[in-house]
Write the C-alpha cells for this entry.
Amino acid sequence: MRYRSVRHRSFFGKTALVAMCLVSGLFLMQCDSGSATFTKIPLPYALDALEPAISAKTMDLHYNRHYAGYVKKAIELTRGAPYSGKSPEEVIRMTAGDPDKAAVFNNAAQAWNHAFFFQSLKPKGGGEPEGRLAEMINGSFGGFKKFKTQMITAASEQFGSGWVWLALKDGKLMICAASDADTPIAHDAIPLLGIDIWEHAYYLDYQNRRGDYVEAVLNNLVDWDFVSAHLPAPAEPEADVPAE
Ligand code: MN3
C-alpha cells in the first residue's frame, strides 16, 4: 500500500522537524524549510471497482503513476518560503496566472484536481442528483439530460488535455472546459465536479472516444452526494417578518 508509507513518512518527518526546531530554538527559520501540505489521498475504492466504465489498468496508471507523480513533484516544488505550510488551495491561488510559477501551479493544481476527481467517483454511482443540486441544474441548464449533453460536448470540443468542470461562480452554476491543470480554484469559483479529460484518463479504455468516456463516468460513476456536499449553504433570506 504505497499511500500508507507515504503518509507515515510525511507525518514522521513533520514531527521530527518540529522537535528539531524546538530544540534548536530556531523554530520559525527552520520550519520554513517544510513544504506545502500536499498528501496523496487514499483511493476510496479498489483499483478495479470502477470497471467496466474505467478499467483497473487505467486506474492503476492514473492513481499510482500520474497522480502520485503530481503529488511528489508538488511537495518538492513547494519546499521553503513562500509555500511552506500553505494548503494546496493557497498554493494554487498564489501561483495562478504567473508564467514564472507555472511548474508549481501545474503540479499543485493537478494534485488537487486528481484528489477531487477520484473522490467524486464511486462504484454504482451515476444516476441523477437530488434536492437543491437537482433544482439548480434544472434551472441553469433546462434539465439533467441537457446538462449531461453540455458536459459531454464541452469535453469533446476541448482541444488537447484538460478537465471539464461543473462549478459555482457568483452563485451561478457553470460548465467549463479547462486546459491542462486549470481549475475553478484559480478563478474564484467553487469546484463541484471535475472530470479528467487528459488522454491518460481514458485512452486505454476508449481510445479517441472521449465523449463516450465522459458519458460513462456521468452515467455510472459520479457520486452526486459528494458533488452536493460541495455546494455552499444557501444565502439566508433577508429577515422580513414583523415582530409580534
Ligand atoms: Mn489525470
Notes: The longest helix spans residues 2-24. The pocket of manganese (III) ion is lined by residues 62, 66, 114, 196, 198, 200-201 (CB under 6 Å). Strands lie at 162-169, 172-179, 190-196.
